[in-house]
Specification:
Helix content: 40-55%
Number of strands: 3
Strand order of the largest sheet: 2-1-3
CATH class: Alpha Beta
CATH topology: GIY-YIG endonuclease
Number of domains: 1
Largest sheet: 3 strands, antiparallel
């Protein structure tokens, strides 16, 4: 069984500050962001809401996608979020389970 990798976008609020990351454990990583467990950008700016994610079977493809998305214009990032999550709801509960 192959491992799954994720590229994800967190936001402070609708149209707020955005953060793009990559991980092999989306539930754990988003939980860490929500708990401010790791110093850095998301802790400093309160970026805790999971608004978008994609999955990959290969870490190289996930990392390449993350790097590409970081170079997108803000307008493109917002459009990508709106495409699958038009209400900007927190997707964490969907992935974390009961």
């Amino acid at each position: 069984m192959s491992e799954t990798f994720y590229v994800y976008i967190l936001a402070t609020e609708r149209n707020g500050t955005l953060y793009i990351g990559v991980t092999n454990n989306l539930v754990r990583r988003v939980f860490e962001h929500k708990q401010d467990a790791v110093p850095g950008f998301t802790k400093r700016y309160g970026v805790h809401t999971l608004v978008y994610f994609e999955h990959f079977d290969d870490p190289a493809n996930a990392i390449a996608r993350e790097k590409a998305m970081k170079f997108w214009r803000r307008k493109e990032k917002l459009a990508k979020i709106e495409q699958t999550n038009p209400t900007w709801r927190d997707l964490y509960d969907d992935i974390a389970g009961p």
